[in-house]
Design brief:
Largest sheet: 8 strands, mixed
Helix content: 55-70%
Shape: globular
CATH architecture of one domain: Orthogonal Bundle
Structural class: alpha+beta
CATH topology of one domain: Butyryl-Coa Dehydrogenase, subunit A, domain 1
Length: 601
């Protein structure tokens, strides 16, 4: 059985063009130098590279893991350093980074498509460049010119990597409880002290230096999030000429032993065991939370993408297995032993996987496209694009990762008993996927963010605008005829119910907030399911048009599959939205009725 990852290039191209509208982004003045053929070449060649260089290491990374050595340094799995350096030399890690700092200058949307492929090839491997890109975004937005010159070009090139150091033992999702200290000294630097946990790639040997972005409190800072500042704390201090100096006072205390992503070293870091780690203030004191959200929001999009990427890898492996594994006699067959893909229930599970993968891909790419329009569009479109990106981000992160876990679980189910055996490799996808709904803000926090902040953006106008955009596809579905009639009617009903839920949430926030927040998670899922149906509607309409007009870009089988997959989603996945709606609008009475003792505490 072949389990080598092959990037779904046709699916990625189709999503770029017909769901995220890449041609419109390439029409923006900042990207006028890029043509569609160039993007095509970048996507195709990078997919080949990741499949050949990164994908074969995925299983090795899982079984070996990263190891904390006796000298306090971390060793990554065999082949990791060589593969990372190959990525750097090929330039794949900097395609979407700003050109002014040595990056490729491509749209974020194109960078996201590459990130999908490297994440599918090896999620543990991809976490390192993902966190580095978050640091790039933070320093590009808020760092001083000196800081950018000293650190940013090295991060963009991949010569150095970056981390986000937020979480502490007593402060998980409650970032306002951060207690690490930053003591100013006469030379304009700070001495950082404290302990940070869950630091992804907090130490490794793949690069010469690691740039930690650290949250800490200066003397006299206000309590809570208002008193947090943001600092650069390099593993090795950097001399004025750019050369590396002495080791900073940062120590790896331990590596976490995790359910999955074993290759990714998740470190406990101690800052300042001696005189204090040397740190450099980013921007102004007490503005660190605002700066860190630049990193976190982009990381949340990246984590939602991880759900998609693991799902895609698991699906590809599972389809191969379902064709090769023979068991039972399928109804309607010739009576001989059948491959399990011929059984209706297995086919249902495969389409459940495939249809949700395509829906999530559309959501992720639409989110990335909104960021491109927000950062590079004209002034009239910027605010609307920013609002759309803000609204989509909690859905991308939460629904994308929930779907990733569901699909990885279905992959195990279709493999049957062999799925529970580690040697097949499919269990790794399930274990790797399970962290994604937790880190970068748990999915419950994403739901609270959606209901508490995002539904009310611009007085509710942002959400209303998106709902109206979804409604506008009805005319295209009507023109498509009978083949898409069930999707059309299902989307229309689901959209009407979603409008009711949005109205309920906005009213409940004002009169009974606990009722709104009790239903926040089903609200997010309902909204996401409807957005997914909208993605499928656009996909099916585009595929049908290409079938009628003719194209040499996609095969007839590929386009017909898009239409059928959209039909399946409308008939088998979208009905879940109404169940979520009933839960979202049910209020908090039953949820809060039992005391902790009655719950067994």
């Amino acid at each position: 059985m072949s389990t080598d990852y092959t990037a779904p290039l046709d699916d990625i191209r189709f999503a770029l063009d017909h769901l995220a509208d890449l041609p419109a982004i390439l029409g923006l003045s900042d990207f006028a130098w890029i043509d569609r053929d160039t993007v095509e070449g970048v996507v195709e060649e990078s997919g080949r590279f990741f499949a050949e260089v990164v994908a074969p290491l995925n299983g090795i990374g899982d079984t070996q893991g990263s190891v904390l050595q006796d000298d306090g340094t971390v060793r990554t799995p065999d082949g990791w350093t060589e593969a990372y350096q190959a990525c750097v030399e090929a330039g794949w890690l900097s395609v979407g980074a700003p050109e002014v700092y040595g990056g490729g200058g491509f749209p974020h949307l194109v960078g996201i498509s590459l990130q999908e492929m490297i994440s599918s090839a090896g999620i543990g491997f991809s976490l390192c460049p993902m966190l580095t890109h978050s640091g790039i975004d933070c320093l590009a937005a808020y760092g001083s010119e000196t800081q950018r010159e000293m650190y940013l070009t090295k991060l963009v090139s991949g010569e150095w990597t970056g981390t986000m150091c937020l979480t502490e033992p007593q402060a998980g999702s409650d970032v306002g409880a951060v207690a690490s200290k930053a003591r100013p000294v006469d030379d304009g630097t700070y001495r950082i002290s404290g302990t940070k946990i869950y630091i992804t790639y907090g130490d490794h040997e793949m690069t010469d230096n690691i740039v930690h972005i650290v949250l800490a409190r200066t003397p006299g800072a206000p309590p809570g999030t208002k008193g947090i500042s943001c600092f650069i704390v390099p593993k090795y201090l950097v001399n004025d000429d750019g050369s590396l100096g002495e080791r900073n006072d940062v120590t790896v205390v331990s590596l976490e032993h995790k359910l999955g992503i074993h290759a990714s070293p998740t470190c406990v870091l101690s800052f300042g065991d001696n005189d204090g780690a040397v740190g450099y203030l980013i921007g102004e004191e007490n503005q660190g939370m605002r700066y860190m959200f630049t990193m976190m929001n982009n990381a949340r999009l990246g984590v939602g993408l991880q759900g998609l990427a693991i799902a895609e890898r698991a699906y590809q492996q599972t389809v191969v297995y379902a064709v090769e594994r023979e068991q039972g006699r399928a109804m309607g067959g010739d009576g001989s032993i059948s491959p399990i893909i011929d059984h209706a229930d297995v086919r249902r599970m495969l389409l459940t996987m495939r249809s949700q993968i395509e829906a999530v891909r559309g959501l992720v790419y639409l989110n990335a496209a909104a960021l491109d329009h927000a950062h590079h569009g004209d002034s009239d479109a910027t605010a609307a694009a920013e609002g759309l990106a803000a609204l989509l981000t909690p859905m991308t992160k939460a629904w994308g990762t929930d779907v990733g876990v569901e699909i990885a679980s279905l992959a195990v189910q279709i493999h049957g008993g062999m799925g529970f055996i580690e040697e097949t490799g499919v269990a790794q996808h399930y274990r790797d996927a399970r962290i994604a709904p937790i880190y970068e803000g748990t999915n419950g926090i994403q739901a609270l963010d959606l209901v508490g902040r995002k539904l009310g953006l611009s007085g509710g106008a942002v959400a209303d605008s998106l709902l109206d955009q979804i409604a506008s596809v009805d005319a295209d579905l009507a023109s498509a005829g009978e083949s898409l009639s069930s999707l059309r009617s299902g989307l229309s009903e689901a959209l009407q119910s979603l409008r009711v839920s949005v109205r309920f949430m906005n009213e409940a926030k004002a009169t009974s907030p606990i009722d709104a927040f009790a239903g926040a998670t089903p609200m997010l899922t309902q909204f996401s399911l409807v957005v997914g149906a909208w993605m499928h509607a656009q996909s099916a309409v585009a595929a049908q048009k290409l079938l009628v007009d003719g194209t040499d870009k996609y095969s007839t089988d590929f386009l017909e599959a898009k239409i059928v997959t959209a039909q399946f989603y409308g008939e088998h996945i979208l009905p879940r939205a109404e169940a979520e709606a009933r839960s979202a609008r049910a209020g908090s009475a039953a949820i809060m009725a039992l005391s902790p003792a009655q719950l067994g505490a």
